[in-house]
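#onboarding

Welcome to the new folks! Below is a worked example of what a typical request in this channel looks like: someone posts a single protein sequence, and someone else replies with the predicted structure as tokens. Don't worry about understanding the tokens yet, we'll cover that in week two.

Example request:
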Amino acid sequence: MTALAAAAMADVSPAGDCIPPPGTGSTRRTARGYASGKDDYLRRLRKVEGQVRGLQKMIQADAWCPDVVIQVASVTRALQEVSVGLLTDHMRHCMMQAAHRSPAEGDQVLAEAASTIRQVIRL
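Example response:
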């Protein structure tokens, strides 16, 4: 098990709750929204990893620039799909639960989601 995986597992309590990683500024305890689709996300990320290795081989082989750029765009789209899926899962699970608990908590997670979206679209 990698140190990253061990750290992630350490955040999860037996009840399936977790604490956001240190440094995120969040102290709420929520279950991760992507938990049920974790295997799918890991599969997608392994595919992206393979695509990036393919890009490295293309550069090493002096592939034609437009072909490399098209493959970079493909990797970028694949990562964007992972991001959209994670954010959707977060909204369905974490945000909905927080909104049901209290309007104030709903407002807090909505602000966090808006901040995340702002960071993503600043590409």
